[in-house]
Amino acid sequence: MAWLSLFVAGLLEVVWAFSMKQSAGFTRLVPSVVTAVAMVASFALLAFSMRQLPLGTAYTVWTGIGAVGAFIAGAAFLGEPLSPMRVTAAALIVAGLVLMKLSS
């Protein structure tokens, strides 16, 4: 259950990062509210996960899912560039997440 909660927390991190971008510096109401709600839910699920998972593992996986997810969302929905170096960097983050999971 801790790993599932952590995965959902990471996905919610992507949601709040994307909606924060859409909020235009918190000047648009709906994206600002989505950002706040997703942040609170993401932190709550992260905290729940940390009851059973080591701090370093939980936090690394949470931020990694958020970072790679935000990278994918930016490329897919905002037209951000997919250069070979950026894709390699994202792949290295995923490799680190896999290693972190295997070490737990």
What features would you describe in this structure?
- With 104 residues, this protein is an all-alpha fold.
- The chain has one domain (2-103).
- 83% of the residues lie in helices and 0% in strands.
- It is built from 4 helices and no strands.
- The longest helix has 24 residues, at 55-78.
- It is flat, with a radius of gyration of 14 Å.
- It starts with a helix and ends with a helix.
- The model has no long low-confidence stretch (mean pLDDT 95).
- It is found in: Cell membrane.
- The chain crosses the membrane at residues 27-47, 59-79, 85-102.
- It is a multi-pass membrane protein.
- Its main location: membrane.
- Keywords: Cell membrane, Membrane, Transmembrane, Transmembrane helix, Transport.
Helix content: over 70%
Describe the sheet with the most strands: none
- Rounded to the nearest angstrom, the radius of gyration is 14 Å
Query: How many helices?
Result: 4
Q: How much of the sequence is in beta strands?
A: under 5%
Instruction: Give the overall form.
Output: flat
Number of beta-strand segments: 0
Please supply descriptive tags for the structure shown above.
transmembrane, transmembrane helix, 0% strand, transport, membrane, 104 residues, flat
Q: How is the topology of this model organized?
A:
Blueprint: H1 2-22, H2 29-49, H3 55-78, H4 84-103
Helix pairs in contact: 1-2, 1-3, 3-4
